[in-house]
């Protein structure tokens, strides 16, 4: 018996109807897929969370080598799409129909869905709508961040080859739970503009570096919106960093943005907590994957700094999530300073959509799922399971899984 068989035979959770809304022409909460209604009532709609401790109690003969890693990956895959489901439901319930339309209909499509494997073994979904939102959609956020991290890593490698030193500086500011996310973000961005143009340390950093990459991270904690700017400067070999002057200049920029009405205690705390400097950074993950790994390992509980905004949708704080979504709509996660890409020998600048499409074009087709079955998988929150099985067991594993689910034949290996 293999893991697929055991996996299917033990999914006996309570059956509940999902609320994953789709375009009314495709079926949704109030319009289940008629011919598959009997099938949908046989299986769960909420994700099951398998733990390695539970898996260890089962006979080793049931599992392939590396089962514990695979169980963890299954959790990770399920959690991503459980978050996506929560985000879509929150937006449908709390916004007008046209608002966030692309996010609400992300991963839906009018035709058959293609499952494709990229060079790293990850399964991608093609011939479906993609919202390409780096902040609001868990799936697109992850895919975009992975591609951007490759670009950042290439720039870091180029910098070391040419004796430039990557130096990561993180800026944040004092916030409170009564501050709107949009206010918090605007304060940070305007303070950064002032830091570069109106302070000695900001101008000095630009002069001592040949370029920079800026990444943004936003969390929610007990004190409300927690916004960071992670800026990777590529410093010339003779650079010198005065940490105290940088901190003083950042406080000056925040004072200018907040009207100078900061209390002395606030200034002292900001000098201590609002600037962090890390020299000799070696990886693009410092920028591109900030926050994403937390989101994909289901860290929905609060940490000392906060939790991802996707967790707000998961935990029923939908109104607050929508405020974040509106504040972040249209904003990019990664920005390169002008001319840096060309200096590092990267290809022309590509939009998030172009990066995602490029990855799909370079991938290999492994299976095609019919439109009706794909939308059923979305409604029943089984897309994460489908992705996991395709990645670990390929087309044959998907065949076994579909057979165990009792689904009608709606799968091909791309040759039909």
What does this structure look like?
This protein has 416 residues and is an alpha+beta fold. Helix content is 47%, strand content 14%. Strands 3, 4, 5, 6, 7 and 8 form a 6-stranded antiparallel sheet that branches. The longest helix is centred in the first third of the chain and has 28 residues, at 67-94. The chain is globular and about 70 Å long. Mean pLDDT is 76; it is low at 1-65 and 289-304.
What pattern of helices and strands is seen along the backbone?
Answer: HHHHHEEHEHHEEHHEHHEHHEHHEHHE
Residue windows where pLDDT falls under 50 for at least 5 positions: 1-65, 289-304
Mean pLDDT: 76
How widely separated are the two ends?
30 Å
Helix vs. strand class: alpha+beta
Q: Helix coverage percent of residues? A: 40-55%
Shape: globular
**Number of DSSP helices?**
18
Radius of gyration: 23 Å
According to DSSP, the number of beta strands is 10
The oligomeric state is single chain
Main beta sheet: 6 strands, antiparallel
How much of the sequence lies in strands comes to 5-15%
